[in-house]
Amino acid sequence: MIKKVSLHIYNAQILDVFNQKFEKTELWIDKNLIYYRGKSNELKAEKEFDAKGQYIIPGLIDAHLHIESSLLAPSELAKLELKHGVTRIFADPHEIGSVAGVSGLFYMIEEARNTPLHIHYMLPSSVPAAPFEHAGAVLAADALKPFYGFPEVNGLAEVMDFPAVENGDPDMLEKIRDAQAAGKHADGHGAGLSREQLAVYRSVGIDTDHEATSGKEALQRIQSGMKVFIRQGTVEQDERAILPVVRKNNQSYFSFCTDDKSAIDIEKEGSIDHNINLAIKEGIPSERAFTMASYNAAQAPAFRKCRCFS
């Protein structure tokens, strides 16, 4: 029996992220999902498209960023991201949460619904950022917990208050437990932490980090069982320092993020596509760089626990 699908793309070079190679093959797409890859006599498409040898890769993913750093609303930033091949981002609305509290979080969620870019939020873990700071709002565990009912919310963002975790602060531990109880994930923020301190994070279930600034720190995180988001933004630019330790046998632990990047820099040099271009220039095979920017990021805990196809 012949099955009808929506679209047939042929004569294309398609990235096989599982074997990390480009393959001249075909794609059969039905209802916006890839139904089959390869030649088939049992499928018929409503629309045929000759790719004429062009390359097809998965959508790029920014594993961690702050939309507020772009000085744009979510839907406006999305216009830039989509131009650069980014189809999904994981954002921490820490800045607006610090000023506007829960109303700021509601705004970011609602406004992000105005774009086809998939915008997922990780709830800000430390508002205020330090006990002596007050920018206008306080977000304790009981204020954050209801937000796990939103499909756009995928967990707790970068837990930056390491002393609170180490000292067993009740509110911080409750935030982490609430995320996990909702089937979500808590991201790490291990700036300057030793392997012993990273173990404290791991003991509460935190296994991602974007604060590695050197190859040595990146390897320490991998040895601790953590995924590493290689950061290349406007201020923090760690990629060149980390890439030398990315090897074929450990590359699955690495993906890319921008963290804080201005709209001007995104327009000028790119978003995650800039991370890819830099990686290729530094000697990372293109197939590996594209895989890190897509499939690897999709294997990070926050993505795996999202309702991405609901």
UniProtKB/TrEMBL annotation:
The keyword Glycosyltransferase does not apply. Keywords: Hydrolase. It comes from the Bacteria. Residues 55-300 form the Amidohydrolase-related domain. SUPFAM superfamilies: Composite domain of metallo-dependent hydrolases (SSF51338), Metallo-dependent hydrolases (SSF51556). This is Amidohydrolase-related domain-containing protein. It comes from Oenococcus alcoholitolerans. The lineage of its organism: Bacteria, Bacillati, Bacillota, Bacilli, Lactobacillales.
